[in-house]
Amino acid sequence: LAFTGPALRAQAPVPANIQAAVDAAFAKYKGLKEGKNADYIPALAKVDPNLFGIAVVTADGKVYSAGDLKTEVSIQSISKVFTMAQVIQEQGMDSIAKRIGVDATGARFNSIIAIEGVRTVVGTGAPEMNPLVNPGAISATSMVTGASKDDVWNKIIGIHNDFAGRSLTVLQDVYKSEADTNQRNQAIGALMFAYGYIKTDWQQAVDLYTKQCSIGVNAKDLATMAATLAFGGKNPVTNKQVMDPAKVPGVLAVMATAGLYDDSGKWLYRTGLPGKSGVGGGLIAVSPGKFGIAVVSPPLDDAGNSVRAQNAIADISNALHGNPL
Ligand code: DON
């Protein structure tokens, strides 16, 4: 993946409008063959690697798009953003900061070493963990309150629906495939319970986390979710206020810090935008006050981020920022 820094980008022609920027990125990266579908969850290996959809949603709820807007992929780790949003909305900014932390771990998203790392600094007031890596994400899922497992699930799917502006469903084949192969996440859940981060049934938390990762979304859904974050928690398509505006910066901050795994810094350096990737091939980015953008394209780079999505979003967002809306 060629790195194009700000100096190089400044010389690139700036498309005149949003649709032109979207079309240009689609044409440029459609044939790109870099990257490989995730295969540690067997169902993900079977998804068509040519699937490619781009969507941008602006303040007026208008959708600019190219490619496949219909085919759903599993949301995977992008769900971590919205479950975190649910906990922040329900229990306040401090709930996440105090129980889980909002710092980068410096380790891979499913690292167990990161849990032990946190153990060594707990008590110093500096937990180096966040809700966008698996230990923090499973803990965040465990923090969603409810009288029953169904109640908790209804809140989790409910906030995803509100952000997307429609009723989403779980891709059952992905859910089953991941549930059959998620022993590592079960170990993470058990450890987080043992260390007191998870205070409820850890097996329930791991199962609901696995289920939330299997929610089916298309590029338009993801872009609408990103746009809702861009416009102070108000979905610009449905006009529903999904979360308090004052709480949105907390969500964006963790996305900026940890949204693209170990490559979060490189991504932020390239685009300046909080983003979040998922191993299903989705990637969202938020330009506060301007637009939400998402790309779906399954082949991932070594860090686990969609290759076409990173390139397309970087091109489009830089074109739009160079040509203010
Ligand atoms: O926990 C997993 O392995 C997947 N359900 C999610 C992986 C993913 O997208 C990575 N995220 N940070």
Notable traits:
325 residues, alpha+beta, five-stranded antiparallel beta sheet, two-stranded antiparallel sheet, 7 strands, 48% helix, disordered N terminus, binds 6-diazenyl-5-OXO-L-norleucine
Q: What is the count of helical runs? A: 15
Return the CATH architecture.
3-Layer(aba) Sandwich
Question: What spatial form do the alpha-carbon principal axes imply?
Answer: globular
User: Compounds present?
Assistant: 6-diazenyl-5-OXO-L-norleucine
Query: Could you give the distance between the termini?
Result: 29 Å
Chain-averaged pLDDT: 91
Task: Give Rg in angstroms.
Answer: 18 Å
Q: Please provide the count of β strands.
A: 7
Number of domains: 1
User: Strand sequence of the main sheet, in spatial order?
Assistant: 2-1-7-6-5
Which runs of at least 5 residues are low in confidence (pLDDT < 50)?
1-15
Estimated helix fraction: 40-55%
Largest sheet: 5 strands, antiparallel
Structural class by SSE content? alpha+beta
Let me know the CATH homologous superfamily.
DD-peptidase/beta-lactamase superfamily
In a nutshell, what does this entry contain?
The chain is an alpha+beta fold and 325 residues long. The chain has 15 helices and 7 strands. A 5-stranded antiparallel beta sheet has the order 2-1-7-6-5.
Question: Can you lay out the helices and strands and say which pair or pack?
Answer:
Layout lengths: L5 H5 L7 H12 L12 H4 L7 E6 L4 E5 L5 E2 L4 H13 L1 H7 L13 H9 L12 H10 L5 H16 L7 H9 L2 H12 L7 H12 L2 E2 L1 H12 L17 H11 L5 H8 L3 E3 L4 E6 L3 E6 L10 H15 L4
Antiparallel strand pairs: 1-2, 1-7, 3-4, 5-6, 6-7
